[in-house]
Specification:
CATH class of the largest domain: Alpha Beta
CATH architecture of the largest domain: 3-Layer(aba) Sandwich
Helix content: 25-40%
Shape: elongated
Strand content: 15-25%
CATH superfamily of the largest domain: HUPs
């Protein structure tokens, strides 16, 4: 999409738009004023032009897809280590790359130690890892990180950019998509690619009632965020041949409009996505007292208790322990659902579990369509029995 147009007959090349742009998005070359990837479409240049020679115009233009190739994975770091979602993104990108003869590259931004982390990615099949390391990148600031990643994208022109749908990724991805005037599909659960390099981005839509297939056909790069624990982790390669590329970081890149007044490390607890065993309380669990019955089973198994959306909306449980489109996506080794009906909003975010045990007294419950083991019975009889069974086995 081309958004900013300059009228060559009106423009006097006075340079006022370049001077007034707060993002450094305008430059002057032999052909006149040009717009780079830093443009936020704020409209300040349109208002400041004394000759009224600038306007917004949204229309599709011819796009040479051959100029944009390969995959680029944004590598998020968490407490000095690589976030596990990155390895899942690399794995999915490698599957798609094999279909269109693309490479899988990565970009990592951060403070001291970032280059060391970059080396770890070569083991998982990354072809090139672009490193932006500087003390100014210590601690995530969206504007600085967006500048660094945008610099990489502008330089190597990837066809598709994949970012983890974490809190950090959800802040970074829309900023980048806006800069490059292209599309972004959030919270994808499945990815594929066509022979013409259009990426098929699949995600639940309309409250989870349909699975939408979305493609960005008119522009590049294609941006997508992917939830943690919905895809398989990349397998290690025996003889890595990738390379780490150290990129220049200029002073302007680390300057931020965000000032950090104070920061402290919050003690990390095992998240729902990282748990191997989950017990889920659904609407069939009638009150908080009965929730404790399910919690005892979770504790006996050494796992965590989770909830469906209706339970959280009723004040039982919190969103950090909610499974579903508006909560978390999980892939545990074992998940036991208690009184869960099995709406697609829930099942789409847990069906990747290795073993699903469903307890429900309704033989027609939707949850039985995805469960590996179906128990059609009163959960108030089954759950205490399972808890005692587990405890007795541990004692033996």
């Amino acid at each position: 999409m081309e958004f900013i147009k300059f009228d060559a007959q009106k423009c006097t090349l006075c340079g006022k738009c370049i001077e007034k742009c707060p993002f450094g998005a305008l430059d002057m070359d032999g052909s006149g004023i040009v717009v780079n990837e830093k443009c936020r479409m704020c409209g300040l240049c349109v208002r400041q032009c004394p000759e009224k020679a600038i306007c917004f115009e949204q229309k599709a233009k011819a796009f040479n897809k051959e100029e944009w190739r390969d995959f680029l994975i944004y590598v998020e770091q968490e407490r000095g280590d690589i976030h596990p979602v990155v390895y899942e993104l690399i794995g999915e990108a490698r599957k798609m790359a094999a279909k269109v003869a693309y490479k899988v590259n990565c970009v990592i931004v951060g403070g001291p130690g970032t280059a060391e982390n970059a080396q770890k990615l070569l083991t998982y099949g990354a072809d090139k890892v672009y490193v932006y390391e500087d003390e100014g990148f210590e601690g995530f600031r969206a504007d600085c990180y967006a500048d660094a990643v945008a610099d990489c994208i502008a330089a190597i022109k990837p066809s598709s950019v994949l970012i983890g749908a974490t809190s950090l990724g959800r802040s970074l991805a829309p900023r980048l998509a806006t800069r490059f005037h292209t599309g972004l599909t959030a919270d994808c659960t499945t990815l594929d690619i066509k022979s013409n390099t259009d990426m098929v981005q699949i995600r639940p839509a309309f409250g989870g009632n349909i699975m939408a297939q979305i493609a960005i056909t008119k522009s590049r790069p294609q941006f997508a965020t992917v939830r943690y624990r919905v895809m398989d982790k990349a397998a290690k390669v025996e003889n890595p041949i990738g390379e780490v590329v150290i990129c220049d970081v200029n002073e302007k890149m680390t300057q931020s409009g965000i000032e950090i007044l104070e920061s402290k490390v919050i003690e990390k607890q095992k998240s729902l996505e990282e748990e191997d065993i989950l017990v889920v309380a659904g609407r069939g669990v009638r009150n908080e007292k009965d929730v404790e019955m399910c919690r005892r089973l979770a504790e006996a198994l050494g796992g965590q208790l989770a909830f469906t959306r209706p339970m959280v909306e009723n004040g039982i449980g919190d969103q950090a322990h909610q499974i579903g489109l508006s909560g978390r996506t999980v892939r545990p080794k074992l998940i036991i659902t208690c009184g869960v009906s099995g709406a697609i909003q829930f099942t789409s975010c847990m069906k990747g579990a290795e073993c699903i045990v469903a307890i429900n007294n309704d033989p027609n419950a939707q949850i039985f369509g995805v469960a590996h083991y179906c128990i059609v019975d009163d959960l108030y009889q089954v759950v205490p029995y399972l808890t005692e069974l587990v405890k007795n086995r541990k004692e033996d």
